[in-house]
User: Fold these one by one.
Assistant:
Number 1:
Amino acid sequence: MTERRQEFASDNTAGLCPEAATALADANAGAAASYGDDEWTRRLCDRVRELFEIECDVFLVFNGTAANALALAQLCQPFHSVICHEHAHLDNDECGACEFYTGGSKLIPTRGAKGKIDLLEVEAALTRQHELHSHKPRVISLTQTTELGTVYAPDEIREISAFAKKRAMFLHMDGARFANAIAALRCAPKEITWRVGVEVLCFGGTKNGLAAGELVVFFSKERSADFDYRAKQGGQLASKMRFLAAPWLGLLENEVWLKNARQANEAALKLASGLQDCGAEIVFPVESNAVLSRLDLMVAQKLRERGWDFYKFIEPDIYRLMCAWSTTEEAISALLSDFKVARSCASAAR
Ligand SMILES: *Cc1c(COP(=O)(O)O)cnc(C)c1O
């Protein structure tokens, strides 16, 4: 059997980036206070406040599913609902964690072009909620960058948050790939978060080069009360938190997080243009580190036979290829040359 190659299956197949690995090794120097009462966690929270230019409340949890579910549980009562995109990770890839942690809140998926929330669709979904007889709409959740690799511009977020505010709803941002969005937009983090009405951000580090650890960032103190208890009850309080915090500091120092994100985004552009040169259709604009391409079933199968692992993302024939901070030119060239072989095998077989 061919060895399975993981390069493009997800950006979480990548390793730990060297800066994070060094920071982790450096933090491994004797005993330190547990449960976040350590110097690395304190410095990380300060650094995040500097980065966002606001006195935000910052919490570290193990992964993105927990970050999203706990953040939403913080905003919702069990009788509330959360509007999201139909491709939202929340609704498709988190095994009901949001419903579980909120104890009853309902996710309401809506359609929208290019993976983005469409306010007309949201409006229509809201009209279908029958006052007391349906869940009470409480949150709009958007994913930045989106599951399809597109990026919301600051004005688009501002428009969604104005809509939410008018209906006394909050804006949650699933920022599993927040770094890729900032690298693409080249703006300050505040320009796509609290400045444009985001209440809580789940800021992902794992796909950016960490081993584990996502931040939950509340931009107002009113919203963060007792979140530490919620995280602890949810099994998300790391006793040796310094080993999550130190690598995060390694990412945020010297803008490593942006360097990593830029590398991933640039790799995706190269991959997309290579695929296009080979005649493959690229289905969505490549604005970050995801390439969604329509592939003939047999071509996809041949590529898999040649060892490449990647997911089908939208039925029947749209596949997602992800790039990471570590994606090399060699991997891209190898995939492209196998793509050419796969395609000629597929057409010869017809
Ligand atoms: C990867 C990802 C997450 C987090 O997933 P975990 O596996 O729980 O860390 C959340 N949202 C999006 C959009 C993701 O791609």
Number 2:
Amino acid sequence: MKPLVVLPGDPRHLRQKFGEFCFSPIVKGHGGFILRAMTKSSSAWGPGQSAQLYGVTGWGAGYFSVNARGHVSVRPVGENGPELDLWEVVEASLHRGLELPILLRFQDLLRHRVQELHRVFEEAAQEAGYQGGYQAVFPIKVNQLREVVEEILDAGAPYHHGLEVGSKPELFAALAMHRDPESLIVCNGYKDRAFIEAALLGRKLGKRIFLVVEKLEELPTILSASQSLGVQPLLGIRLKLSTKGQGRWARSGGEEAKFGLSTAELLQALRWIEECGMIHGVELLHFHIGSQIPDILAIKRAVREAARYYARLRQQGVKLRYLDVGGGLGVDYDGSSSSRESSINYTLAEYARDIVYNVLEICQQEGVPHPTLVTETGRALVAHHSVLVVNVLGVIRKTPVLVPCPNGNPHKLVRDLLELKATVNQGNLLEHYHDALQIKEDAQAMFDLGLLDLSTKAQIEALYWELLERILALYGARRSIPEELRTVKDHLADRYLCNFSVFQSLIDYWGLKQVFPVMPIHRLLERPTRQGRLVDITCDSDGQIADFVGPHGEVAPTLPLHPVDKEPYYLGIFLVGAYQDIMGDLHNLFGRVNEAHVFLDPDEPGGFYIEETIPSLKIREALSLVQYEAPTILRAMKTQVDQAIRSDVLKPTEGMLLLEAYERGLEGSAYLALGQNEKEPPLSKRP
Ligand SMILES: *Cc1c(COP(=O)(O)O)cnc(C)c1O
């Protein structure tokens, strides 16, 4: 590689200006930085290769791709809309004083999802001649953040997009946020008297708020509360369909489901309601067979079954107006468009058409009017809009960078390994692996018996991993690797230590092994040469990611990554807008991450502005959630410092500085500030 040009300036700015495609790597030279031309092999790598490697064309859904600078680009309003550079958005957020990890919310993307949902249903209805219309409600549990709910209600206002709640706190939030008298509030979940009364209060305000009967036992309370408050309730009934969903949430449907009325219970409920003179309030029929339904066939079956119930009840004189098909519309997390759990084998438009056509057909057969279709789509509305960006704090490699060099007369086992290393070739890969394994086991046995010293053991381990790396490299990509070596390969993968907590930010990966797309948000003009797994900063061995989306949507145990140098290395974890942040917990007291809310704006230099930032949970706040109040722990620290001063362990000035540092530290974030804040003075010197 020959130096190409010498440029003055900071390499980071140069990279930002010219991109990484012309010059790499950057080394310090005289009076500036020498930018060296890339080698032939890496120049064959471009945005297209990266996009394919990380499968972004599949899961990106037109919102995410790779731009010519080798950064991830975001098109919040779809393929034909304006394009943002994710790296620039992160830099702007850092500029605003946020630290990594950062959760970015693309509010325009959220609006676009809402509009798309209504567009596909409108088109399907028009095409089919469906007369009942369509309304949606957003299930708040999928993402309760006020800004998210507000954005959905705002974007959905022309379509009377309403809300779905499953608990009292959600209902209290919904009552306040909901303004449009034509949009619905649907109350699901088990309800007590207070829940029911709060909903009836909403009725008094003129809201179209439905109490959905989930089990027979709650009906008497609903009826008596309505009578004593003098309110005509709007009632819905949840069906227990025989159709099951599929995938991870299959048990939400089917005959053993936790919620819903069987046919006999349904008839019983209607009799009770009739006796109380409230039968004209029964307007909605509801089902929900689970979330992330991968196969469209399950949806069709459930819709047909429910439509049949609707038709029969209409024929019996129950004036149902709404058929609510619940949630379940999935997200293609792995981009494979298949019926695998982390994918879906249908599009948004197909989903809408299948619901509309199947209900239409059954209504025609049965001679009943078309109901207004309601969906409780959550996941598919909000998953795409947020991206978690984490920085890599360090890389843990299995093979030590520096192998201790055996000098003098090396141990016999070391000599054997050196011999294997020298003679390994395409013809003896597996045999050499077995021999090396034997040597490693012998060494362990000798060590256990006290016959091996530490430095010899270190040499053997280092040589063993080196040899294995060499063997795997010789297998290369040409041949399929034998089963027994495949686990070794995963073992050899680097551990990229990332500034986040799986328990806070990716709870469905931890709990359900739900895969989420992960990729670097920059350096995408550079061929990634390492294979890695991500480990988080919790002290839990479960705090890692070892399932990734491969080029064709297959799940892979490692992720291709770049070697980390002194420059910051940022990874994006995508499609995390549904269920993740809101269900995250306080494991290790990490808590909420920093958030930036990004809006498109053609007048701004990068095409966007950051309207709002939400700081991460402070250490003081996290502690207070588990009953350590700041004054109490400060007092406890002061007592200890005073004691140390009295017994001459500390000088009084030292003691005061220590206390001040502790107090200031409480106001900081729980996440690690390694790398990003190296310019800052140490804790005790900050103002
Ligand atoms: C969770 C839930 C939803 C949301 O489902 P998604 O698959 O996220 O769209 C809708 N309705 C009910 C009753 C739910 O419990």
Number 3:
Amino acid sequence: MQFIDLVTQKDRIRGAVMARLESIVDRAQFIMGPEVAELESKLAAYAGTKHCLSCSSGTDALLIALMAKGIGPGDAVLTTPFTFVATAEVVSLTGATPVFVDIDPDTFNIDPALLEKGVLEARARGLEPKALIPVDLFGLAADYTRLEAEALRLGLWILEDACQGFGGAQGGKKAGSFGLVGATSFFPAKPLGCWGDGGAIFTDNDELAALMVSVRVHGGGVDKYSNVRIGLNGRLDSMQAAVLLEKLEIFDEELMLRDRVAKAYSSSLGGRLKVPVVPDGYRSAWAQYSVLARDSSDREKLMGALQKEGIPSVIYYKIPLHLQEAYGDLGYKAGDFPVTEDMASRVFSLPMHPYLKEEEIEQVCSVLLA
Ligand SMILES: *Cc1c(COP(=O)(O)O)cnc(C)c1O
């Protein structure tokens, strides 16, 4: 059994993608070909934002947004410690300091009630709180209704990390479109992935969009050899755009197929494990289907039983960011974020992809329920 099956999907779209790739090879227009602009306009329409900029990865998408907003040394950016390292890493890359805020135990997402505490902690450390990066963890959008109200009150702007959330929605608004700016990733294992690295940035703000276009390619001004600010090489190439154009065609269908898998898991497993909560009005992109065991030895037992049957399962995330060696100099210690630490000790993720068969779902459930 595959944890994520990229082969079935590839076989489905192979002919159409190869035709597009051949046309790029024939034209030899590898960078900024017409596929890139076509993809950006389709993604903006999909997310419901005025602008979409494709870029080289989810990490660069987040970084470009922070750089364009001038985040740097002395600034604090609030975020969750229960995420992939890139969310906080980009803050450090700008010279600013990540300040962690604990999560909600039902959704694994940053807890809006704790933002004010984060702001006070940042100030106590001599930092100026500027921005907030909520993460749409495992595919479920964070609570933007409350986050946007709190951020406004506390004077923070929001960068949505939709690297796992793209395809999800809350109240008819798509993931990627929340806050001032949203970032997503097209790493192959994400719900919408390319055949390499890629990402995208979304905003309704014209001025910020123009700044991000400049930062994306070496801080260019009127052309790329007049450099008006520090930027990076953050483009998406034509071939990845071509792959994404074909994958976008089947994306909504794949999201429905993922939802079918999640519903089947939840109805079987709900009595034995804590299954994911999808609050009313939300639609998850199901980047991961993550459950909670009773404690870490229960998790070890269940993951061992799955492994014995050849069923892969993975722990996202075993070490929260505030306890990672790379963040040792921030001075956090075990016990600082009790909800995150509890989740990290019990969470694990089951095989999740659109092409998981009924028999496979039943097999996973029967091993876990044995
Ligand atoms: C994958 C991911 C990223 C980084 O995306 P890349 O395309 O791998 O650079 C950032 N944040 C979160 C939450 C992610 O899951």
